[in-house]
Write a structure and sequence with these properties.
5 strands, 10 helices, five-stranded mixed sheet
Amino acid sequence: MRSILQGLESLLLCGRRILQKRMGQKYTIKEMAADERPYEKCERFGAGSLTDSELLAVLLRSGTKGENSLELARKLLYPEAETQKKGETHLQNWTKEDLLKIHGIGKVKAVQILCLCELSKRLSQLSAREMLDFSKPGTIAEYYMEDMRHRRQEYIKLLMLNARSRLIGESELSKGTVNMSIISPRELFVEALKKNAVYIILMHNHPSGDPTPSKDDRLITKRVKEAGSLLGIELLDHIIIGDNCYVSLALEGFLKNT
C-alpha cells in the first residue's frame, strides 16, 4: 500500500512539474519525486548514481528563489550549452570574482566551490603520483594535467632534476598572455643553477586546449637546449598541455634534431 501511495505521489509531482515547465514556472527540489532529489537519491542508491550536476547540487544544498540547487549546479558546470554536449565541465575555470557575480553564490559558496576544485586537483595528482616517472612524458603530463589544463592564461613551469632524474624543484616562470619567443633562457637557467639541477623539463599550457606546438614553442625549445648544452644542464623535454591532451617535443624527436 505504501509503495502504491509513493507511486501516486511521484506521478502527481511529475505532472505538476510538466505543467510548471509549460507555464514557464520554476519548481523546487522538494517538488521533485523523492527518488529524483539528489540528496535522497544518494542515500538510496549511493553517490555513484548521481550525475555531476546532482553531486554539486548536494554540496550547494540550496538554490535561490526561482532557481533550485540542481539548476544552479548546471549553470556552474555548463555555462554554455556546447560544454554539456561535449561532456566538458567548467567548474575548474571559475575564479572567486566570477563566482560572486552569479546570483545565488555568496562568499561562503564561492569559497566552498574553490576548495572543492582544489581538493579534486590534489586527489588527481595523488593518484597520478604513483606512476610519475620523469623519463616518461605521459606520466608527467598526467600528473600536471589537472593543475594546468583549466587555466585561462598561459603558464610556464620549469621542472628541475638531479643526476638521478629526481625532482628537486619546480618553478612557475611566467603567466599571462605570454609569447614563448620572449622567454629568456637566462631566466630559466638562473633557477636551475640555484637548485644545482642536472636536467630540466620545460612545460606550459595552451588555454585554447590545443597542445599543437607553435613556431615560437619550437624556437624557445631550441634556444633553451643550446644554452643548456653550454652550461651542462640538459633539456630533457618540453611538454605542452592542452585539454586532457599533451604534446611532448622529445617524443616528437624535435630535441634530437636540434
